């Protein structure tokens, strides 16, 4: 039951944000009573915390797989973009705003994931790219890794990219491609162009 | 007298931030009494407001000159980097933090300058670059202009780039060069490399 509650809560939070989803809504969707939910969780914040913990864990595993399965840092970073697309296609722009404003513990967990695992993954990607001659050797890995981490949150910022003017995926894709291109060597560009052409071909 | 007060206040604010500089300090440095300052300004916030208004006006003129004097968008954007270096070499990391936290009207003025003139200058630079075949035609100018505006503030962020680990100029330069490279076409790279080689040569 606990797993079903978490899965349904995640689906509703992602679709509508956290504030507008009530314990009643979650119970109703599952065809159970609120009492059943309270047997497993104290409040909505506790559910949210668990949802974020599970979700970041799964994202991290998926990212680790990508690193093992891809053959170079450019393919890896474009793979992450696909992952982000899958994750943000259905996400409400309220989700991160709600968490940031009203659920400090859950936000701290998200922040910790961002500063820890995401930061580390990006830094490793950059260092690998430099050592393979795909990224320029005169870039500063820590400054650019920090830039990339901040870009992820930037794309969620409603004031900067209002959702009636921008799709979140377009913003993420634009920032990600620009980020990669800004690091590429000539050799890197050859590899990058292959993936981009191949991808455009698959989409058409 | 008003001009002398503004010039001295600007120098002290830039060097130490706003909070730690008193009316007494400004008067003392000029060898005048506090009373003389109060004949021209009601309080420190009014001085700060005027300082920012003058400074952004001068920066804008300098930027406009650069656009007329340079022969292409890459030279222009690297010229802006030099301008930023001159401006941030002596700047206290407290300056923007103080203004953001304690002087809302002055911060609103800075914000207005950023959202208005800086945003417009960057957008024009990008559009010119695309039309000259120096920047890629498949980039989204408004998304990238927004990214660049946010990067300027990012480099001032003490939490992200602590001043005991990073020089503000290095961060600005890293972000700016990465920003330009992420937009360049092959033709653009040829022009960019010329300027970078020339600059490195001059520095040595």
Task: Describe how the helices and strands are arranged.
The structure is a homodimer of 204-residue chains.
Chain A: H1 2-16, H2 23-30, H3 34-40, H4 44-69, H5 73-88, H6 94-102, H7 104-131, H8 141-154, H9 168-181, H10 186-203
Helix pairs in contact in A: 1-2, 1-4, 4-5, 4-7, 5-7, 5-9, 7-8
Could you describe the 3D structure shown?
2 copies of one chain form a homodimer. The mean pLDDT of chain A is 90. The first copy, chain A, has helices spanning 2-16, 23-30, 34-40, 44-69, 73-88, 94-102, 104-131, 141-154, 168-181, 186-203. Chain A contains 10 helices and no strands. By secondary structure, chain A is mainly α. Chain A has a single domain, classed as Tetracycline Repressor, domain 2 (Orthogonal Bundle), CATH 1.10.357.10. In chain A, helix 1 (2-16) packs across helix 2, helix 4 (44-69) packs antiparallel against helix 5 and helix 5 (73-88) runs antiparallel to helix 9. The A-B interface holds A 139-140, 143-144, 146-147, 150-151, 154, 160-161, 166, 170-171, 174-175, 177-184 and B 139-140, 143-144, 146-147, 150-151, 154, 160-161, 166, 170-171, 174-175, 177-184. Chains A, B: GO terms for molecular function: DNA-binding transcription factor activity; transcription cis-regulatory region binding. Chains A, B: It comes from Spirosoma foliorum.
The gist of it:
The structure is a homodimer of 204-residue chains. Chain A is mainly α and 204 residues long. The first copy, chain A, has helices at residues 2-16, 23-30, 34-40, 44-69, 73-88, 94-102, 104-131, 141-154, 168-181, 186-203.
